[in-house]
Amino acid sequence: MKLFQRLLVAPAALGLMAPIAVNADVTAVTKDSDVNSEVINARIDGVEAQLGELMAGQFSTTTRLSGKSAFVTGYVDDDAEANSDEIVGQYMFQLNLNTSFNGEDNLYTRIKTGNTNDHFFDKPQGTYLSVGNNNGGNLAVDKLWYQFPVGESLQVWVGPRIENYYMLASAPSIYKPVTKQFALGGNGSAYGSSTSPGFGAAWTQETEDPSDGRWAISSNYTARTGATSTTGLLPDDDVQSFLLTKVEYGSPRWQVSGALAKKSSPTATVNGYDGYFHTASAIGTGGDMTAYGLRAYWRPDDLGEAIPSVQLGYDFATYDEATAGEATDTAGWMIGLGWTDLGVNGSRAGVAFGSAQAATDLVAGGANSEDPEINNTRWEAYYSFKVNDGMSVTPSIFGGTDIGAADTDVNGAVLLTEFKF
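Above: the chain's sequence. Below: its structure in token form.
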């Protein structure tokens, strides 16, 4: 029972139990155990019934609160910047509330704040941390949506603050990254998005054995300007919206999937749908973008051995209405390896490398005949120690080459101390 329920119910219970205590004393004195036992049992039944009525009338929902805090200590050395390698101390803090009204649905609310900034909040550079948040210490509703089932095989989502990858039958990636560029099997054109109003549904094939392979189809829609009255949730074609469909086949051990995303007016400066982990030349300025995401993963039967789980990702996209110097085609990829219980129970290790989404074809007439960052590479490696059930320490190193138009190198290190409650 939740604490606030106990605080309200306890006084009533004590008041109702007082006559029982009196009768218990009478029982001890009179030794008439049979008669008093019946009286006590009857009064206990009455107490239970009244408590049940009280709880049913005042507590019709179940809410679970959990949270996480991360201390960030590290540095980034960027060849293109002077004095960029100073060690900084930053943080992130979040609260998660999950509320169910019937035991099968879920109202999810995430409240978050933090002061990660500069390099640790730099998306194109690839040093943006997965725990990153730059609300400047101000608590804000970061995510808010409602999820409910329809029948046995269909899940539905709707909410004013949600991203497309939350509305999927299953995650496209099992690799747990330190830098967010390696989230989702490569945070590229197909899955990279921004928190927006939206809705979606996912169907999952039922199987008798949960370990058997099964099909699943997910489709969702978000509109970056959906909270604005001048554009609305269903805007015209020249205003930002995002339609994503994912088809997958697999089991908890392995999966292959393909995703198709359609983004209207996907400019980084306008809506943030694109440009998260793209090179500058791979960001369009108008029209539509059609993106494709291919994912595959596999994990071994026995965790804790030297054999790692494997995550593969490849994204490619085409732009409509590209003008001189802009990309008509882009591509990016990643490979992630992950270990659990490596050396120490509860530990976790990972290594990933790949490239940001880069332009593979440009319209002639611009300043560049090809993307200066076409051969950019990104990488990270980490080992996470589980101190106890609620605390972990994760040292990590990361870097990249041919970053930015100047083709500079970037290297960094971070120590994450995370607390979960």
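The chain has two domains: 3-52, 63-420.
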